[in-house]
Amino acid sequence: AIICGVCLAWLFFSCFICTNWYFVLFLWDFDLGFVIRSTHICFTSLLFFLLYVHIFKCIVLIILFDTHILVWIIGFIIYIFIVIIGFIGYVLPCTMMSYWGLTVFSNILATVPVIGVWLCYWIWGSEYINDFTLLKLHVLHVWLPYILLIIIFM
After folding, report:
1. Which of 3, 26, 108, 122 is most buried by its number of CB atoms within 10 A?
2. What residues contact residue 93 under an 8 Å CB cut-off, 6+ apart?
3. Helix (H/G/I), strand (E/B), else coil: 21
4. Which residue spans traverse the membrane (predicted)?
5. Half-sphere exposure (CA, 13 Å, Cβ side) for 107?
6. pTM over 0.70
7. Which of these, 50, 24, 49, lies nearest to 37 by C-alpha position?
8. How far is the C-alpha of 54 from the C-alpha of 106, rounded, in Å?
9. % of residues, the chain, pLDDT over 90
10. Would the pLDDT of 20 be above 70?
11. Is 35 within 8 Å of 70 (Cβ atoms)?
């Protein structure tokens, strides 16, 4: 997944209007473009499957053994990081569904009292979703896994 992600990041183009068309061209023009993108998506699905199997195993074991609450808190933080990374990766191709997913999610954040509108503006980078938003999300999608690895191995 990391090697496929590096290949996709190397060729990422953050033009809001033509991002979806860019992915179609990526699949057609580059040798094995479809294989690279599909492998990245399949490894992501495999990661979530293994994550949910691990969570189920931990829930079963918590019934048998008493564990520390700090382990559960760190595990929940890791889970939230993985969900955020997955959502950002879902938004990057900028299809209509992912665009509206980002719009709905950021407008849900806008309902948070006091800082909600500021959070929405910070995520978008302006008054609306544009090229800069995609660039910020791409940088987050690339760097958040490394931050996650630091959290895991501390």
Report:
1. 26
2. 19, 20, 23
3. helix
4. 6-28, 40-63, 69-92, 99-124, 136-153
5. 8
6. yes
7. 24
8. 30
9. 19
10. no
11. no
